[in-house]
Amino acid sequence: MDDLWHGLAQAFWLVVRFDPALVEIAARSLQVTLSALFFACLIAMPLAAFLAVRRFRYRRTVIAVLNALMGLPPVVVGLIVYVFLSRAGPFGVLGLLFTPTAMIIAQVIIIVPLIASIAHQSLRELWHHYHDLLISMNVTQFQKVTTLLWDARRALLTAALAGFGRAIGEVGAIMIVGGNIDHATRVLTTAIALETGKGEFAFALALGFILIALAILVNLSIHWVGKTEREGQW
C-alpha cells in the first residue's frame, strides 16, 4: 500500500514540475493526434455533407460501410499501413515507416469513419430543414455542401472532438507503424505500455494522469458544445 501511495506521489510530482521527458511525450502525442484530426476532418466532413445532399445509387451502401468501419480494429489498420509502408510495400520507397507521419496516416484511417458518421447524422437532419429552400434557390452541389458545413459547425465540432478522443487513446496501430522509438515516435499510450512493462509505475501513472486529463477535457468540451447547440436552437 505504501508503494502505491509513493508511486502516486512521484507521478503527481512529475506532472507538477513538468518533467521534460513527460512534456516531450505529451507534446508529441498532441502533435500527432491534432495533425491526424485536421486531415481526417478535411476528408470526413465534406464526405458527410456530400452524402447528406447527394442521392446516388450506392449511397446507402456507402453510409452503411462508414458506420461499420467505426468499429474497425486499430491493430488491423496498423497492420495494413505497415504492409503498405514497409520496404516490400508499394510506398516503401518513401521511408515513412516508424515515423510520426506513419502514425498520422494510421490515425486518419481510424477516425475518418467515426467523424464522417457522426457528422452525417447531424447534417442529414439539417438538410431536411434546408432542402426546399436550397432547391428553390437553384444552388450548386458545392454551395449546398458549404452551407450545411457552416451552419452545422457546432455539431461538426462535436464530431471532431469525438475523433480526437478516439485518436489520443489509440495504442495498437501506432505501436505497429511507429515502433515506439524514444525521442521520435513515443507517445502517451505507447509510453504507458512500455513503462508499465519496465516497472516504472510512477512515470506510467504520470503519463496516465495526462491522458485522463485530456480525455476529461474532450468530454467536457463535447458536453459544452452540445449544450450550447441545444440552447441555440431555442
- Averaging pLDDT over every residue, what do you get? 85
Give me the count of strands: 0
Portion of residues within helices: over 70%
Largest sheet: none
**Number of distinct helices:** 10
Q: So, the CATH homologous superfamily? A: MetI-like
For this structure, what is the CATH class?
A: Mainly Alpha
Q: Could you characterize the architecture of this molecule?
A:
With 234 residues, the chain is mainly alpha-helical. The chain has one domain (30-232): MetI-like fold, CATH 1.10.3720.10. Helix content is 79%, strand content 0%. It is built from 10 helices and no strands. Helix 5 crosses helix 8 (172-178). The longest helix is centred in the middle third of the chain and has 37 residues, at 100-136. The protein is globular.
Q: Brief description of this entry?
A:
The protein is mostly helical and 234 residues long.
List the SSEs and their pairings.
Elements: H1 2-16, H2 20-53, H3 59-69, H4 74-85, H5 100-136, H6 141-151, H7 153-168, H8 172-178, H9 188-198, H10 201-232
Helix pairs in contact: 1-10, 2-5, 2-6, 2-7, 3-5, 4-5, 4-8, 5-6, 5-7, 5-8, 7-10, 9-10
List keywords for this structure.
MetI-like fold, globular, 0% strand, mainly alpha, 234 residues, 10 helices
